[in-house]
């Protein structure tokens, strides 16, 4: 049983995140999407809202791999969340080189903090979704721009409600 944790803020989930989940479904038997409560960012959506939105969007998402996907919030160290789920790998998406510098540092830190073998799997962003970041989507939505090319319809509606 290969279990992967895909951690992030998902504030809100975008087509970029969904692409990573779809591709990771070919690598793992189970993916736990971990919604970080303490990501150092001020969130627009609460953890409960982000969990509901992700579950809603996942209902409409086809996974190419045979994989179970669950969504859960966490407010602990990533390695403790991974231990809870007996996960062997962390999945992260990398959009550009600047993402990689941060991600490589986090991966090395997690490897040091963990008392067992864990691997971080970096998936290069699909060029089609490379420019999508949740923080930009929130700004575009707040200024009245059309975010439908970047996020599923449920998220367009949720962003409209918040603005
Ligand atoms: P953000 O950096 O947009 O606030 P998150 O913290 O929710 O996003 O990111 C969770 C993970 O998803 C990170 O590994 C991040 O690099 C990745 N990710 C975010 N947006 C994309 C995208 N457009 N394409 C690929 N990976 C992405």
Question: What would you note in describing this structure?
Answer:
By secondary structure, this protein is α/β, with parallel strands linked by helices. The chain has a single domain (about 5-160), classed as Rossmann fold (3-Layer(aba) Sandwich). It has six helices and five strands; from the N terminus they run E-H-E-H-E-H-E-H-E-H-H. Strands 3-2-1-4-5 form a five-stranded parallel beta sheet, with helices on both faces. Helix 1 links the parallel strand 1 and strand 2. It is globular, with a radius of gyration of 15 Å. The model has no long low-confidence stretch (mean pLDDT about 95). The structure holds adenosine-5'-diphosphate (ADP). Adenosine-5'-diphosphate (ADP) binds near residues 14, 17, 93, 129 and 135.
Total individual domains? 1
CATH class descriptor: Alpha Beta
| Total helical segments | 6
Indicate the CATH topology: Rossmann fold
Instruction: Write the CATH homologous superfamily.
Output: HUPs
Beta-strand portion reads 15-25%
CA radius of gyration: 15 Å
Shape: globular
In the predicted model, the low-confidence regions spanning at least 5 consecutive residues are none
Number of strands: 5
Listing every helix as H and every strand as E from the N terminus to the C terminus, the arrangement reads: EHEHEHEHEHH
Task: Kindly report the average pLDDT value.
Answer: 95
Going by CATH, the architecture would be 3-Layer(aba) Sandwich
Distinct ligand kinds: adenosine-5'-diphosphate
Percent helix range:
40-55%
What structural class do helix, strand and pairing data support?
A: alpha/beta
């Amino acid at each position: 049983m290969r279990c992967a944790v895909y951690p992030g803020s998902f504030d809100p989930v975008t087509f970029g995140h969904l692409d990573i989940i779809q591709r990771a479904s070919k690598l793992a038997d189970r993916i736990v999407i971990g919604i970080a409560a303490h990501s150092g960012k001020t969130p627009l959506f609460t953890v409960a809202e982000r969990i509901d939105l992700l579950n809603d969007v996942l209902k409409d998402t086809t996974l190419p791999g045979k994989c179970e996907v669950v969504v859960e919030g966490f407010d602990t160290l990533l390695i403790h969340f991974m231990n809870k789920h007996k996960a062997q790998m962390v999945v992260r998406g990398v959009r550009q080189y600047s993402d990689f510098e941060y991600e490589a540092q986090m991966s090395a830190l997690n490897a040091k903090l963990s008392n067992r073998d864990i691997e971080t799997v970096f998936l290069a962003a699909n060029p089609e979704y490379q420019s999508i970041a949740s923080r930009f989507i929130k700004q575009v939505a707040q200024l009245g721009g059309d975010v439908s090319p970047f996020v599923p319809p449920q998220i367009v509606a949720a962003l409209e409600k918040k603005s």
